[in-house]
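Hi P.,

Sorry for the delay on this. The queue was packed all week, but I finally got your sequence through. Input first:
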Amino acid sequence: MDKILQILSELRPDVDFTKVDNLVEDEVIDSFDLVALVGELCDAFDVEIGVEDLVPENFNSVQSIWNLIQVIQEGR
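Then the structure:
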């Protein structure tokens, strides 16, 4: 999860992602941030995040992003 925190912090250095949930629903990250985040996650974790994965529940917190990465890495 540290890598996810690092990516998010580089993307939005003004946010303390250890204390924020509902990243998408509370508009802490916007659609442009999400596109950049998905690209960085794919590179960092060597995964393919599909269109079906692009739902707010998968990106609302560091934990939910980590869970998504784990599911993809385990082959769903």
